[in-house]
Design goal:
The chain has helices at residues 11-21, 32-39, 45-86. It has 87 residues and is mainly alpha-helical. It has a domain at 6-62. The termini are far apart.
Length: 87
C-alpha cells in the first residue's frame, strides 16, 4: 500500500491507512477487530468498506454541527475558568 500512488487507492483504503497507521481520528472509533470483540459484529471485507463509506457520509453531514458545539463549549469553559481565576 505504501508504494501505491495515492490516486490509485480507494477512499476506504486511505481512510483505513490514516486510522490504523497514522492514528488519525477518522470515522468510527472502533477498528474492524474491535467491532467483532466488543459488539459481536463480524464484517466481511466488502461490508467493512461499505460501512466505512457510510460512516464517512454521516460524519460529513454532522461535522460542522459538532464542531460548532465544541467551539461553544470550549468558549464557555474558558469564560468560566477565567471568571473563577479572578475570584
Amino acid at each position: 500500500m505504501e508504494n501505491t500512488p495515492l490516486k490509485d487507492l480507494e477512499t476506504w483504503e486511505i481512510l483505513y491507512y490514516l486510522r490504523m497507521h497514522r492514528y488519525q481520528h477518522v470515522l468510527v472509533n472502533y477498528t474492524k477487530a474491535m467491532y467483532a470483540t466488543q459488539l459481536n459484529v463480524n464484517f466481511s471485507d466488502e461490508n467493512w468498506k461499505d460501512f466505512l463509506m457510510y460512516c464517512d457520509g454521516v460524519d460529513n453531514q454532522e461535522m460542522f454541527t459538532r464542531a460548532e458545539k465544541y467551539i461553544n463549549q470550549w468558549r464557555g469553559d474558558c469564560l468560566l475558568n477565567n471568571l473563577l481565576d479572578y475570584e
